[in-house]
């Protein structure tokens, strides 16, 4: 996931700290479900949604974890990369929350309504969905080294084995009658 932000400076802790080294970005972003928030201070819907998103994030930290200021990262104000991200993830309206799997693939194109409706429960759903999808689906190149077989291959093998067993039983039966 850090590859998406390679060479970019992200602000943390309300723009007091910068994450700009590759190691810092990897530690903050890799192997995590990532939410990209797109909003504007001039948008009334964004101003209404921002406190809900803040509460959503705080509830994700849980009561047992101390608050971590580096949890919320942002592009510096006016950074043109924000527009590139909007285009890349086809953000057409604000507020928008794009949910990305740890691989960087889009899990939810805009999760604003889901966050409003379900609250923090939806984050666990996203994590589970990301794990299931990443575990169950393999890329086409994963199959390059395997022999190509049809979907009916196991049935044909079973039928062939059953036919072979019947032939062997028949041969043994014929052989016993000759003695």
Feature tags:
about 180 residues, alpha+beta, Glutaredoxin, 3-stranded antiparallel beta sheet, 6 helices, 6 strands
Description:
It comes from Manacus vitellinus (golden-collared manakin). One of its GO terms (cellular component) is mitochondrion. This is Nucleoredoxin-like 1. This protein is α+β, with helices and mostly antiparallel strands and 179 residues long. The protein has a single domain, classed as Glutaredoxin, CATH 3.40.30.10. It has six helices and six strands, in the order E-E-H-E-H-E-H-E-E-H-H-H. The strands form two sheets. A three-stranded antiparallel beta sheet has the order 2-1-4. The longest helix is centred in the last third of the chain and has 26 residues. The radius of gyration is 27 Å and the shape is elongated.
Structural class, by secondary structure, is alpha+beta
CATH architecture: 3-Layer(aba) Sandwich
What's the average pLDDT?
A: 77
Largest sheet: number of strands, sense, barrel closure: 3 strands, antiparallel
Give the name of the CATH superfamily. Glutaredoxin
The Cα radius of gyration reads 27 Å
Q: SSE order in H/E notation?
A: EEHEHEHEEHHH
User: Structurally, how many domains make up the residues?
Assistant: 1
State the helical fraction. 40-55%
CATH class: Alpha Beta
Strand order of the largest sheet: 2-1-4
Poorly predicted runs are 64-70, 137-146
Compact description:
The chain is of the alpha+beta class and 179 residues long.
Give the helix/strand layout.
Elements (H helix, E strand, L loop, with lengths): L9 E3 L4 E3 L2 H8 L4 E5 L5 H18 L11 E2 L6 H8 L7 E5 L5 E3 L3 H7 L2 H16 L16 H26 L1
């Amino acid at each position: 996931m850090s590859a998406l932000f390679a060479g970019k400076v992200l602000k943390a802790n309300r723009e007091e700290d910068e994450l700009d080294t590759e190691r810092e970005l990897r530690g903050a972003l890799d192997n995590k479900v990532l939410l990209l928030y797109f909003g504007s201070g001039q948008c009334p819907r964004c101003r209404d949604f921002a406190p809900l998103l803040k509460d959503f994030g705080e509830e994700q930290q849980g009561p047992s974890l101390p608050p971590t200021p580096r949890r919320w990262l942002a592009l510096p104000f006016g950074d043109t990369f924000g527009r590139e991200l909007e285009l890349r993830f086809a953000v057409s309206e604000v507020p928008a929350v794009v949910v990305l799997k740890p691989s960087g693939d889009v899990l939810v194109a805009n999760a604003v309504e889901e966050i409003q409706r379900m609250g923090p429960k939806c984050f666990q759903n996203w994590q589970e969905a990301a794990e299931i999808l990443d575990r169950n689906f393999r890329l086409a190149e994963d199959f390059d080294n395997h022999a190509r077989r049809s979907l009916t291959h196991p049935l044909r093998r079973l039928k062939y084995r059953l036919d072979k067993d019947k032939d062997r039983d028949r041969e043994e039966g014929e052989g016993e009658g000759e003695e």
